[in-house]
Every structure is written in structure tokens, then in C-alpha cells.
Design goal:
This protein is mainly β. Among the domains are: 100 residues, no CATH class; 81 residues, no CATH class; 74 residues, no CATH class. The protein has a 26-stranded antiparallel barrel. It has a 15-stranded antiparallel sheet that branches. The longest helix has 14 residues. The chain is elongated and about 110 Å long. The two termini are 49 Å apart. The N terminus is likely disordered.
């Protein structure tokens, strides 16, 4: 019988070079075959193989006549075609046209299982499914699935479906006329459900659905229902180009609010988006983002991380272009939310040239110029009380410096000038600002290698001075920190030490200790020449780190500033961190902490009663626990006290994660906030 099987296989192969250039690449292996009139068949199992094709089944019939060459297979059927594996009940495949039909077929792509009543196999490897379904469950009896009248898979992973229903427990929850998705892209969950409970707002059901997707683009629809506020919905989109150089993301949310219909209207909304791109050489970049809100309470009333793309209520456009010898920046920052106070840039342009050496003297010169029209517009509530600040602004910054080196000693003196022209001022006249800058820095490095470590000591000093400005700060508009100039003479002096150890596997110094202080001449808020001393510490090890900083106010004899943080990865199942922050009432809220112009311009008693005084204490904790490969927990807490005229506050957030069967992740969250102590949320989403 084996000899008969091989003889049939050889004779059929010689007459049927359908899939290959070589006849012996088409092979039929059947158990107990029967052959008659060009038809070979078996009921006891067999395999047919060819390039890009493999058919395995219990019952196989192969027809090889002058008019047709066809394979029929059923029973324990498995087929590999064009690199994809199919299973089903029955197969009919035409070897001449390389097309066929698979009854009750099923296949897998990425994390998806897809199939249907009948699958039409196309010669290019694509296929059409009639009575289609799509799910992540291995079992055919899944708790949820996407059903479609017809669906087509192209390019191996792109799904296009028509007459689509999303079903849970065989109950239809959503219908779409058409649906497209990329089955291999799992950067965002195509399906997500959440159930949340907020104190005061009650339960909220949220459903997010990806209704269109390509290899680079995805579009989503979201439906929300809050029991006390009402329904809401969102349209979202994400785009990432194949070369990763262009990104677009937008989230647009609207809701009916039954709580404040008279105050803000019955409709609340937020439209936000980001678009950014860069050239292939990365010398040219473009960025635009927007964030339009119906009112100032929209974010807090409808607080949810799902509605955030980090636009932070700001709207601006920015273009930058860099060349070998110059750079150009252009930005526009309009105010689109009337409740915000904002220094509008309409527009703001910058031009600069790369540092150049003057006549081979070693003196380096830098030049920078900007032009803008700025409009500081106040919120609606302040418009009637305060006049808007508007002015054209031209600025030039020019500086020179000359590095000197002698052994390990490095000294760099610096000098420059600042010129600013304002077309308008508080008295409605043009104002010119001019001042000189001067200073320099010096440092020397000493190192010694010991058997177990290397010790480096760096004494340093940095001096910065401003001449008396031509215009006083009250005579021109201050739009931001770059307009705030006053007489300044300050020195930062310190001693920095670094310890490198052999047993420390990370490429960081094991210990960094920086001891430094500031000395001032002429500051209105300081009576002493050296009013503040600081110490910064870093202790780095492979599994833990200690970070800290202290600032002692010699003039007031108080601890101005204190930070202490401990981070420890105990094991693969446990990691945690704790941090304490202290600020005294003599520590000012500044975006640049080592800018002391405000200390020279304002007396101490005026600063203490201003919002700049930052008296507070904060204690933060965070931890991650892995109870099992499927269960994880994240814990975050914060505690604050000591701020004048404000109560003590506490907050916490606990997240539980677990993986369910079928690539689903479940998340349970509890949040404790000072104004919302009982906030629960439950969600599950599909992940890769």
C-alpha cells in the first residue's frame, strides 16, 4: 500500500506543477488512498504540501482532470496558506485559480481570533469572511465579540468590516455601518469599558470603541453616562507616521450637565489636540496644540485621565529651524479660553547665530535677537478692574566670554549687554531698557584613586552681576521673568565631591555631595552678606538611592528648604519610595530658584505677604507590589500641612491590576481626595 501511495503521489506531481517551478515540490501523502479517473481520495487522513500551501485533514479528495484541479478536505482540518494558519470544517480549493472557500473557518492575527460562516481565500493571500466574528478569546464560546456581515483582511493585518455589531454575552451594545482596524497595532485599546463611582457624582459608565484604524491612524468614539450629571461623548484620533516623525492626537469631549445648567449652560465641552512633525535631518520642527474649554471648572468637574493628552490648558504654535550657523524660532500663543490670564504672543520670533571666535583671540561672542507683540490679557473677572497690557517688544542679548585653562584650573570671565524696546508702557509711552551684564566662573578639579574608590573634589565659584537698569521695573510691562531686571551682584561658591566605587555597577558616582552658598551685595531682602547655605546629596546604588537637599537661612536662622527621598527596589515583586519636602515662609515660589532678582527688587516684608511665600510641608509615598504574575498593586499617598490659613490635607490612590483570560486587563482603583473621599473606578481593556 505504501508503494501505491508513493506511485500516485509521483504521477500526480509530474502532471500538476501548479505551485512550483519544480514538479517535486507538490507532494500528496494519503493514508489508504483510493484512485480512479484522475481522482484520489482517502477517509483515513493525509497531507498535501506545496510552496505557500499545506492542507491536513481526515478526509481529502484531490481531483486532477483536464478541466479541473481541485482539493476538497474536511474533518480535523488545518490549512497553511500564504504564511497564515486556518482551521475549519470543510475546504474547497481550486489549484488553477489559487482560490477557495473554507466553511466555519478561523484564523489568528496578533492578539485577535477571527472567523466566520464562510471564508473566501484569494490568490494574493487576502481573504473575505461572510458572517464574520472577531474576538480575543481562544474558545469559540467567548463572552464578547465583534460581529460583521462581511469582513476583508488585506495586507495580512488590515481589517475592513461592514454592518458591525459589538456584542457582550450575545447582547448587541453598539452598531456601526463600517469598521476598519489594524489587527497588529495595540498601542491603544480598541475596546475599553470602565465603571467609576465618585462621591457627589455617583456612578459613571464609560465605553470607548475604536471604529476606524489603519497602520498609522486610529479613530475612537466614547460614550459616558453619569447618573447625576447626564450623558457625554467624545471623538478621539491618533496618528503616527511610518517614519515616526509626524504625530497627531486629539480628544474632543462634550457632556450634558444637569447640576449647573444656569451657571455654565447645559453643555460642557473640551476640545484639545497636538500635532508635531520634524524634518528628516531634525533641523526643522513644527508643533501646534490647542485646548478649548467651555469653562474653568470643566477639568475638575469631569476629571479623568482618559481625557488628558498633556496640553495643560495651553494653546500655541511653534516653528523652529536650525542650521550650522544660525537658528530661527517663531511662536504664536493666543488666548482661546476667556477665563484665563495669559501673556499672548502674537507672534514671538527669535533669531540667533552660532557662537563665533573674534579674530582668533579665544574670545567667544554670542548674539541673540527677538521681536514680538505681547498682549497680557486678564481673565473675565479682572478685565473690568485691570487694564490690558499690550506692547511690541524688541530685544537683543549680546555676550562675550573667554575660557582660560591652567593645569586643572578653569576660569571663564563673561560680559554682555541687554537691550529691550517696548512700544507701550503703563503711562502709554514707549520705554527703552538697557543694562550691562558681567561675571564669570572658576573651578579646579582634584582627583585621587584609592584601591576601592576614586575621589574627586571640585571647588568652584560663579559670579553674576547686572548694572543698574535704565528703566525701573514699575515703568514698563513685565510679561515674564525675562523682563524682570534689577541691580544684581551675587556669587555662588561651593565644594563638590564625587565618589566612584568599583562595586557600583551603574555608571553613576556612588556619592555626590555639593556644599555651596550665596553671597549678595545690595539685595533689599537680605541684611547679611552670606544669607543662605545649601547642601545637596546623592547616594546611588544598584537597587536603591538616597537623594536630599538642605537650605539654611543664616539671616533668619531657619531651615528654608529641605528635601529627602529614598527609593528602593527590594525585589522583582516590591519597590517603594518615600519623600519629604519642607519650605519655610522665606522660600519663594520661583520657576528658576537661583534667579535672585526679586530679592534685590523687593523688600522682605513685601515678599512675605505676597503669594510668593511658599511655607508648607509635604510627605509623599509610592509603592509597587507584584503579588503574582497576574496580580499587581500600585499605591500612592500624599500629605500636606503647615501652609498658612490652609487646612491639612491627605490623599491616596490604590490601583489593582490583573490579567484576565483572552488578553484582557482589569483595573480597580480607589482614590481618597480631600474633597472626594470615596472615588472608585473599575475598568477592563484589551492589551497586547
Amino acid at each position: 500500500m505504501k508503494f501505491r501511495l508513493l506511485t500516485i503521489a509521483a504521477s500526480l506531481a509530474l502532471s500538476t506543477p501548479i505551485f512550483a517551478e519544480k514538479a517535486d515540490e507538490f507532494v500528496i501523502n494519503l493514508k489508504d488512498p483510493e484512485y480512479a479517473d484522475g481522482i484520489v481520495k482517502t477517509e483515513n487522513g493525509g497531507v498535501i504540501t506545496a510552496p505557500c500551501l499545506r492542507i491536513q485533514a481526515q478526509a481529502i479528495t484531490y481531483i486532477n482532470t483536464k478541466k479541473e484541479q481541485e482539493i476538497t478536505a474536511e474533518g480535523d482540518l488545518m490549512m497553511e496558506y500564504q504564511g497564515r494558519i486556518f482551521v475549519g470544517e470543510k475546504l474547497q480549493f481550486d489549484l488553477l485559480s489559487k482560490t477557495g472557500y473554507l466553511t466555519k473557518g478561523r484564523t489568528k492575527e496578533g492578539g485577535w481570533y477571527t472567523g466566520g460562516d464562510r471564508m473566501e481565500l484569494l490568490p494574493d493571500g487576502n481573504f473575505i469572511i461572510y458572517g464574520a466574528y472577531l474576538t480575543t478569546s481562544v474558545s469559540r464560546q467567548s463572552t464578547w465579540e465583534i460581529r460583521a456581515n462581511t469582513a476583508k483582511i488585506t495586507d495580512g493585518h488590515l481589517l475592513s468590516a461592514k454592518d458591525v455589531q459589538f456584542k457582550v454575552m450575545d447582547f448587541p451594545l453598539l452598531w456601526l455601518p463600517a469598521y476598519k482596524t489594524n489587527l497588529t497595532e495595540f498601542k491603544d485599546s480598541p475596546i475599553r469599558y470602565r465603571l467609576l463611582w465618585d462621591k457627589g457624582l455617583g456612578p459613571r459608565l464609560s465605553m470607548r470603541y475604536r471604529f476606524f484604524s489603519t497602520e498609522t491612524f486610529g479613530a475612537f468614539a466614547r460614550f459616558d453616562y453619569r447618573l447625576k450629571r447626564g450623558p457625554g461623548g467624545a471623538l478621539e484620533a491618533d496618528y503616527l507616521s511610518k517614519d515616526k516623525r509626524t504625530v497627531f492626537q486629539t480628544k474632543n469631549y462634550g457632556a450634558l450637565d444637569k447640576i449647573f445648567p444656569d451657571e455654565n449652560g447645559s453643555t460642557r465641552y473640551r476640545f484639545q489636540g497636538i500635532y508635531k512633525t520634524k524634518s528628516e535631518d531634525e533641523y526643522t520642527r513644527f508643533h501646534v496644540q490647542w485646548d478649548r474649554l467651555s469653562d474653568n471648572r470643566m477639568i475638575s468637574d469631569f476629571k479623568d485621565p482618559d481625557f488628558e493628552i498633556n496640553t495643560q490648558k495651553t494653546t500655541y504654535l511653534e516653528f523652529s529651524h536650525y542650521r550650522d550657523w544660525n537658528f530661527t524660532n517663531l511662536s504664536v500663543r493666543p488666548r482661546i479660553n476667556p477665563f484665563q490670564s495669559l501673556a499672548q504672543e502674537l507672534p514671538y520670533g527669535v533669531f540667533g547665530v552660532r557662537p563665533i571666535e573674534i579674530l582668533k583671540t579665544g574670545i567667544i561672542m554670542e548674539n541673540y535677537a527677538s521681536g514680538s507683540y505681547l498682549d497680557y490679557t486678564f481673565a473675565n473677572t479682572l478685565d473690568k478692574e485691570l487694564k490690558d497690557r499690550k506692547a511690541g517688544r524688541l530685544e537683543t542679548l549680546n555676550s562675550i566670554y573667554r575660557p582660560f585653562s591652567l593645569g586643572g584650573l578653569s576660569v571663564t570671565p563673561k560680559a554682555g549687554l541687554v537691550g529691550i524696546y517696548y512700544s507701550n508702557g503703563p503711562d502709554r509711552n514707549a520705554v527703552g531698557q538697557f543694562l550691562y551684564t558681567y561675571g564669570g566662573d572658576a573651578n579646579i578639579r582634584f582627583s585621587k584613586v584609592f584601591p576601592q574608590f576614586k575621589h574627586t573634589v571640585i571647588p568652584y565659584a560663579e559670579y553674576l552681576g547686572y548694572s543698574k537698569p535704565r528703566a525701573r521695573v514699575n515703568n514698563y510691562f513685565v510679561f515674564d521673568i525675562h523682563d524682570g531686571y534689577d541691580r544684581l551682584d551675587q556669587v555662588r561658591f561651593g565644594l563638590k565631591q564625587l565618589f566612584f566605587t568599583k562595586e557600583n555597577a551603574i555608571f553613576l558616582p556612588g556619592v555626590v555631595l555639593d556644599l555651596y552658598g550665596y553671597s549678595f551685595w545690595g539685595a533689599k531682602s537680605f541684611d547679611q552678606r552670606i544669607p543662605k547655605l545649601f547642601a545637596d546629596l546623592e547616594f546611588n546604588r544598584q537597587s536603591y538611592a538616597i537623594l536630599g537637599g538642605l537650605g539654611w537661612n543664616l539671616q533668619e536662622r531657619v531651615l528654608d528648604y529641605g528635601n529627602a527621598e529614598f527609593l528602593w527596589t527590594v525585589s522583582s515583586a516590591l519597590a517603594f519610595g518615600v519623600e519629604f519636602r519642607h519650605r519655610s515662609k522665606f522660600w519663594w515660589r520661583k520657576s528658576i530658584q537661583d534667579n535672585f532678582v526679586v530679592d534685590f527688587a523687593r523688600p522682605l516684608d513685601e515678599l512675605l505677604v505676597s503669594p510668593l511665600s511658599d511655607r508648607r510641608n509635604t510627605f509623599l509615598t509610592k509603592a509597587h507590589f507584584r503579588f503574582s504574575p497576574r496580580w499587581n498593586m500600585q499605591l500612592q499617598t500624599f500629605h500636606g500641612w503647615g501652609r498658612e490659613n490652609e487646612p491639612t490635607y491627605h490623599g491616596a490612590k490604590v490601583d489593582f491590576y490583573t490579567m484576565l483570560t483572552g488578553s484582557w486587563q482589569m483595573k480597580l482603583t480607589y482614590e481618597y481626595m480631600p474633597n472626594d473621599p470615596y472615588r472608585f473606578s473599575y475598568s477592563f481593556k484589551l492589551i497586547k
